[in-house]
Specification:
- This protein is of the alpha/beta class.
- It has 13 helices and 15 strands.
- The strands form four sheets. A six-stranded parallel sheet has the order 5-6-2-7-8-14, sandwiched between helices. It has a five-stranded parallel sheet with strand order 10-9-11-12-13, sandwiched between helices. A two-stranded antiparallel sheet has the order 1-15.
- Helix 11 links the parallel strand 12 and strand 13.
């Protein structure tokens, strides 16, 4: 099925790759790459690659050499929790113990919070500055007063969720444009185990139904598909004809099974990332490309490592905001 990018202004959007500067950045360092899940993303040539490979391409596009071994401008060590959020702390502690210059935390707020706590705990123990954390995010964690939970709440409090009350009107208009679903017939589907759950359910508002997927914590014996179908049936039972899917890392990982379940339930779906449409035969996406997000993260990593050691020490946590397009959507 042919896919194309629609823009209300009639112009195609440039990809991140097209915007890459040719000048090499003088950056060296040792990074820890922390993930909550391992994702497949779709590159501009429609090849399915690992998200870490997209990140690597972003690093290499700056002219820096990148690899696990000595002799590279930027060396890395990586750990993934494979959707087991309770493993993130141990993984983050391990990365900090290896003496990395920067932790790149991927896969949502939980990964960034684990990295921040590990960095602060080690700094308190050693009497040193904490390792800076770089992560990419589409929402802010709930403000609790704990700087390790809030991360950058002071300077980025105005950031909204990809799925939010402000975006609901735009998303439902997109849903109407490409289907016969009415705004009141759109339900939000969220992951109860996600650290974004609180913000999403509050920002979505009370006018539309919220279907809550519960993966039963870390129970590997319960398959994803039956549980997700139950969640979709719950939405149908409450009058939904269409859904908006949360930008949850676990949903991203399971997108092929997920889109199959949505089709079997005859629901129209608005998905968070273009990969749901490009490689999983989804209907419509309202957010950015996962590939572009990881590619950009790689470039930003090089920029940070190019800073002076003194300037880097002043960074505690850096939030990378890769915004959803305001006038674009990705459809079959």
């Amino acid at each position: 099925m042919a896919k194309k990018l629609h823009n209300n202004r009639g112009k195609k959007k440039k990809t991140v790759k097209q915007k890459v500067a040719k000048k090499r950045l003088a950056s060296t360092g040792f990074i820890g790459f922390l993930g909550s899940v391992t994702l497949d993303v779709v590159d501009p040539n429609d090849n399915v690659i690992d998200s870490f490979d997209a990140f690597s391409q972003g690093v290499i596009s700056t002219g820096a050499t990148f690899g696990a071994g000595a002799g590279n401008d930027i060396r890395y060590i990586k750990r993934s929790a494979n959707n087991k959020y309770n493993r993130l702390k141990a993984n983050a502690d391990f990365l900090v113990s290896q003496g990395v210059d920067l932790i790149v935390a991927t896969g949502g707020v939980a990964s960034a919070q684990a990295a921040a706590r590990a960095a602060y705990d080690r700094a308190h123990q050693d009497g040193t500055d904490p390792v800076p954390i770089l992560f990419i995010i589409g929402c802010m964690p709930k403000v609790s007063g704990d700087p390790l939970d809030d991360l950058t709440a002071d300077s980025h409090a105005g950031i909204n969720l990809l799925v939010s009350a402000q975006n609901l009107n735009r998303i439902t208009k997109l849903t109407q444009q490409y289907s016969t679903v009415l705004p009141k017939q759109v339900a939000l589907v969220v992951n109860k185990n996600s650290h974004m759950f609180f913000d999403e359910t509050n920002d979505w508002g009370s006018s539309n139904y919220i279907a809550r997927f519960d993966p039963n914590g870390d129970n590997d014996d319960v398959p994803f598909l039956p549980l997700f179908k139950q969640t979709l049936q719950d939405a149908l039972d409450h009058g939904a004809r269409g859904i908006v899917l949360s930008a949850d890392p676990y949903f991203n990982k399971m997108r092929n099974s997920l889109t199959t379940a949505v089709a079997q339930k005859s629901l129209f779906a608005c998905y968070p990332f273009k990969e749901y449409v490009r490689d999983a035969n989804g209907h419509l996406s309202y957010g950015p490309s996962l590939y572009d997000s990881y590619f950009w993260l790689g470039q930003t990593t090089v920029e940070i490592l190019g800073m002076s050691a003194k300037k880097r020490r002043n960074i505690k946590t850096l939030v990378g905001i890769f915004p959803a397009p305001q006038e674009d959507c990705f459809v079959p």
